[in-house]
Predict the structure of GGDEF domain-containing protein.
Amino acid sequence: MGNLHKHRVMIAVGFFILAVILHEIGALLFVSNGVSEYIIDLAIISVIVIMISFMFKETDETAEELQKNRQRLNNIFDTLDVAIWSHDLKSDILLITPGIEKLYGYSLDEFYQDHTLWKRVIHPEDVNILAEREQSFLRGEPITNVYRIIRSDGEVRWIQDRGIPTVDENGNLSDFNSVLFDITDRKESEDRYRSLVEMSPDIIAVYSRGQIDYINEAGSKLFGAASQQELIGQPIWKLVAPAILEQIKHRELTLDENFDEKMTFEFQARRLDDKRIDVEITAMPIFYEGRTAKQIVGRDISQRKQAEKTIQYMAYYDGLTGLPNRNMFKKHLNEVLNERKNQMLAVLFLDLDRFKIINDTKGHAVGDLLLKLVAKRLGLAVQNDGVVSRQGGDEFIILLEDTDKEKAVNVAQRMLDEFSHSFEINSQEIFVTTSIGISIYPVDGEDEETLLKNADTAMYLAKERGKNNFQFYTDQLHLLSSRKLELENGLRKALEQEQLVLYYQPQVELKTGKIVGVESLIRWQHSDHGFISPDEFIPLAEETGLIVPLGKWVLRKACEQNKKWQQQGYKAIPIAVNISVRQLQDDDFVELVKKVLNETGLDPRYLELEITESIMQNIDRSENILNQLKDLGIKISIDDFGTGYSSLSYLKHLPIDGIKIDKSFVDDIINHSNQGAMVKTMIDMGHNLNFTVIAEGIENQEQVAFLKKNACKIGQGYYYSKPLAPDEMEKLLTNDDAPKSIPIK
Ligand code: C2E
Ligand code: MG
Ligand code: MG
């Protein structure tokens, strides 16, 4: 073989090697971007073929020119971060490009001297690739391996090694080429990304042709798979229902407006165990393994969705009873009004009677339970005839659609009937009734606001008419509700503008007619309405909570007045002050009493608090407060005794000084067939328990005689005196030196 020919062969080999390198670089650069490997190869082969044919045409090239070409080729190899190993096994010519020095840190000579050096520097953990490689070469198949090597300086690098064997016609390996790249940087950045993807708490997945190409661990866990492999290769409909996929396709669920770049969707996916989870997914087109695919990043938003649902629920439903709330009622009624104008509607406004007392005395927990039970019973009564909603507090509204007056009466009556039997709470029986007001569309109002207001007004009429009944709205009714509103507002002003005064009614020793105490009774002189009875405005004050400041005022005023009388030289007698249960519930009540006594200088012996039997409903708390009050040295008596629920046996547990027998029993002395038997029993039992017994509302001599005969010592009533203004009262008071008694008529 002539020199020229030898050079030509070498250059041809060089070109072949160049082709291989270009192929690898092309693959590295372009395949990940989706360009087909074959297109790259085709381009490279065309270039090489043109170059080789050009070279063979130049037959009279000189050795010098060839030497130059060879040098040029070497220079190309030098600039590439790549090494080529080309071994012609037949001629045993080994060619290694100098790039190998850069990759391995060993000199070219060392590789020429020791053909196994490359094997020996393979990282011990990666040597297993050698066997695989050998197998592949024996079959004449190219193989690409990625393994680590340990450089001469000890540094570990990643090498990508593509080996291409050539097999001759006899099936023997004739030559062998290997292209080696240092891919450490790429590998490290790949590893970094891989760990980011793997460790991400978000779902990261790739999806193409209707199936899952890749999903990370977080994703596979979220969908309930035991491993990533369980999902990879699976059809997407396993996780996303076809209907949702359809919606996604039509972008009906798209949150992101930026369609071309990426899209964000929110939908319900299903786990492998068929449970639903809310997910938010962002999808973006990518190339994956040479084809278009979707890169998906997403997260579980079930908690957020739940929170949104809760907020929505809270906005439209009542948390305690689960019934629709006022907002929902309004929304619904407005919708109904807008839709069908030709039907009759009824709005039933329902308010529990005496609920405030139950709540104040039994505690809010019991109150809440009662409201829940009430909600249930209302549901039973109304059934499918209407919608029950809770307006707030102890108020409920029922909307009847397509109805008439008769049907409304039926539903209202069914509801009243439901309340005729007791509610059982904590194994206690609680009786509660309800008052219902009804307004009818379109006669009583054409909009939601008017209908509701008028039903509310009608409800007040039901209260006025003795509670536990229902009333329809009539045009005259607005007068009633406006009075209530006016009084409520007026009461606040009354406190500030001193329209309130205290009157005093003497308590008299029946035997002597001597005044032994006074009861303070509040009076409201309204600028427009004249005198307003405490029976009307005290419940209003209790309802609104105004009783607390009002009660404070009464307590102070009464103590001041009593102290003043004492300072004026009148005989010291106790003054009784009426206290509402609501006041006793106030945490500061005991402190308030202490403070008022201090500031007015009244000796606690001369203050008596009148409370009603309703305190018995929360006996533990009451006992505690009453004990604290007793410790201050004041007296406590039970007002209107006999009208409440208490039995005397209960009372004996409480630190009580006296009972005031209610006027209704005193009336019985003369009216009723039992001839005051009840009063007699009360007096006896009261004395047995060492209580002072006062008879209230004595209006005539007959009653006095009966009471005296039955050993009742003290009485109070118009027979002796009506409640009096302070100056009137003074006329009846005595001083120690000149004892005076009320002249008995
Ligand atoms: P009460 O504490 O049982 O007061 C007795 C009521 O019976 C008083 O009515 C009194 O005027 C009336 N009365 C007394 N003797 C007779 C009689 O012989 N015949 C008749 N027909 N009535 C008689 P008043 O002043 O209208 O008070 C009504 C209720 O208002 C009181 O009943 C009490 O529960 C409440 N109240 C009055 N002042 C206050 C107050 O300052 N605070 C609180 N929380 N409640 C008060
Ligand atoms: Mg009283
Ligand atoms: Mg009373």
